[in-house]
Amino acid sequence: MSFSLIVFNFLLCRFEATAEWIDVHAQFNDGEPQRLKVRCLGVTLRGLKDQLNEFNQGVNPRDTRRVKYVRFKRPTLDERRVSFTWVELMNDENVKSMFWGHNMFQWIDTRVTLLRSTGDIINSLILPKDRD
Question: Which of 4-13, 18-27, 65-74 is predicted least confidently?
């Protein structure tokens, strides 16, 4: 059996065994990494961002920022060596490939950028005093 076929069979068995949830280490705005479980079956980019927002709100209830960008470490197998590159999730296909590509690892490393909404920024502005 070839090396690539062995790896494929391993990934397929691993994916079927952990098909519903996967461990994610999320680093929100360069803070301490947080470990959480993320639903990975049929999830969209919007759904992943919602899960990360929900986790952040649970850990930091007063934080009104929302997930804007998500990047993850993508593994690449080249000449039997594994290397990693940071990739930004741009669409649902990226999310599917992220989960599929990480089935041979215990978790996915992500970096999450939280930004305030325009409404929150406007509401936090201090209005100038009337000059009469």
Answer: 4-13
Question: What angle (nearest 5°) sits at the alpha carbon of residue 38, between those of residues 112 and 114?
Answer: 20
Tens of pLDDT, residues 82-115: 888 888 999 988 888 887 766 666 678 888 888 8
Q: How far is CA 128 from the centre of its chain?
A: 40
Q: Right CATH number for 19-116 from 3.90.25.10, 3.10.20.90, 1.10.405.10, 3.30.565.10?
A: 3.10.20.90
Length of the chain, in residues? 132
Buried b (16+ CB within 10 A) or exposed e, 40-77: beebebeebbebbbebbeeeeeeeebbbeebbbbbeee
Residue 31: alpha-carbon gap to chain centroid: 14
Domains of the chain: which residue ranges? 19-116
